[in-house]
Structure formats: C-alpha cells, structure tokens
Amino acid sequence: MLNKMRIAKYIANAGFCSRREAEKLIEKKIVKINNILCDHPSNTVNEDDKVTIGKQIIKLNNTLRLWKIYKPIKYICSTKDEQNRKKIFDLIPKTFPRMISIGRLDFMSEGLLLFTNNGDYSRNLELPSKGYERIYRVCLRGQIKRADVDKTNKGIKIDNATYEKVKIKIDKLNNNFTWLIIKLREGKNREIRNICKYFSWQIVKLIRIQYGPYKLGNLKEGQIQEIKVVKNA
C-alpha cells in the first residue's frame, strides 16, 4: 500500500511532468482527485485514489527507468517552440513512455542528454546542492592562452556571476584548433559559453560527454538507449 503522497509529487513520480510543472497544472485547476478538483499541491493521495489531469487518468509507475540520447545541434530541449524549430522530443519513438528530460542543452550544443519516467529522480539529478559533475569536450578555433585557463580554474567573475566550480584542461592543441575538457558542478545558465565569450574564445563544437555517473559512450547523433540507473545517484 502506497503511503500518503503529495499530489504534485505523485504526478511527477508518475512521469507526467516535473513537480514544479505539476504545481502549475494544479493552479490552472485541471487536476482532480476522485473527481473532486484539487485546490492545492499539498493535497495527498494514495494508490486507491483516482487522479486525473484533464481527461487523462494518471497512474503511478514504481519502476524507475532511465534513457540517454545523443542530442544533435539545432534541436531545442522543449516540447513546444514558437519558432517551429526541431525538438529533442521529436527523436523519441511514439512507442516510448512519457519521458522527462534531466537538465537541458542549448540549441547549438550537442551530446549527452538524460531522460527518465520519474519526476523526483529528474529533480534529484538537477539540484545544484547535489553537485553532480557535468563534463564537456569543447573545440575552439585557434590557440588560447594557458594563463586564461589557469585564471578560470582559480575562479572568475563575469557580469556579476561568479564561476568557481569550473575546471578546464587543454586536451589537444594545434595551429587551427584547441580541444578542452571542461568540468562543471554548478550548472549556471550558458556557463561555458559565457566563459568562452569573456576570453573571446570562438566555439566550434560543444559536446557534453558525461552527467554525474552517466557517460555518452559510443552513442551516435540522434540515438537513444535505455540504461541502468546507478544506485545512490
């Protein structure tokens, strides 16, 4: 028997959407518990209750599942887009269950993106307090100064934002391009692009290769693969 659970958490754990999005649905007054309008996200339910969003019945899925996808460039991490750009969800087969993306990659970034059927697990991996490391391979045009790399590794401030948990290592270097390995733990908005702009580094490619314990591996662009959930992650 399921212990009493807050309705917003129940909806998130059912894989319908994130907990925050569930709270917005409740505010819009389209969530019902046993055919009675839910008026607050703190309302609780158990497994015998009937939860509906609009005309759709929401059922809790106790099996935590996780997928990884190689996001290509020029895809947005959203279900809707007013500019009619390609969406990452377009790459997910219709036969797959409803999935929630864990974090995002911007339009021109590529690489590892994680999806889950559990809103709480998504939230856990995204929380800044958890400090999950994100690792990127970044190709820059031309050569860069090692002194700039050292400066970043010591912590820098850009437009009133402090970047302290960034570690950069030069991976490959020739006359035309510089490849960096960049490790982040904070996940500030456009963190890598802001740092590169600050030093006038021109990005050619920005590829995420790892998120916490999960690696991109040999996945090809646009491919999706179900993977095992790492315990305690």
Give an overview in words:
This protein is of the alpha+beta class. It has 3 domains: 5-58, RNA-binding S4 domain (Structural Genomics Hypothetical 15.5 Kd Protein In mrcA-pckA Intergenic Region, Chain A); 66-128 and 214-227, 2-Layer Sandwich (Alpha-Beta Plaits), CATH 3.30.70.580; 133-211, Alpha-L RNA-binding motif (Alpha-Beta Plaits). It has 5 helices and 17 strands. The strands form 4 sheets. Strands 7, 8, 9, 10, 13, 14, 15, 16 and 17 form a 9-stranded mixed beta sheet that branches. Strand 5 (51-53) and strand 6 (56-58) form a beta hairpin. The chain starts with a strand and ends in a 6-residue tail after the last strand. The mean pLDDT is 92.
Order of helices and strands: EHHEEEEEEEEHEHEEEEHEEE
On the 0 to 100 scale, the average pLDDT is 92
The CATH homologous superfamily of the largest domain is named Alpha-L RNA-binding motif
**Gross CATH architecture of the largest domain:** 2-Layer Sandwich
Quick one: CATH class of the largest domain?
Answer: Alpha Beta
| End-to-end separation | 26 Å
Domains, number: 3
> What is the helix tally?
5
> Strand content of the residues, in percent?
25-35%
Assembly level: single chain
Rg over CA atoms:
20 Å
- Count the beta strands: 17
Unreliable runs, pLDDT <50, ≥5 residues? Answer: none
Residue share in helices? Answer: 10-25%
Query: What spatial form do the alpha-carbon principal axes imply?
Result: elongated
CATH topology of the largest domain: Alpha-Beta Plaits
